[in-house]
Fold this protein.
Amino acid sequence: MADPNYQYPAQPPHAPPPYHGPAYPPQAYPHDKGQYPPQAYPQTAGYPQHAPVVVNQPVVIKNPTFRESPLQTECPKCHKNVTTKLHYSSGTFTWLACLGISFFGGILGCCLIPFCVDGCKDVQHECPKCDKIIGRYSKI
């Protein structure tokens, strides 16, 4: 039988400690024109007032290695920092891929696939400001 004088604990031992902060952000007062009251969120030591601002500067490559993707470099003709635009053209690798496919039985038009795929073509990097050729990337 239960002891009538037994005092039950205020909280079970497995419960988390009580939280005494606001359960939700305080509502703006109508006379404050949308401003929160100054006591709503007291500043606690250890928390920053403002998030740090990170500014990413573009990296300009002076002696670039040209590949299949555009890159930021200085145009040697107009001396402006630009991101190159790409122009694809058929090169030696495109023709060798065509001959290889036709040699292995792709005679019914499949040998023309390398001429439709940019990954099989050579890449020419051009300046978008002055439209001069900056560099080339050849597959072979």
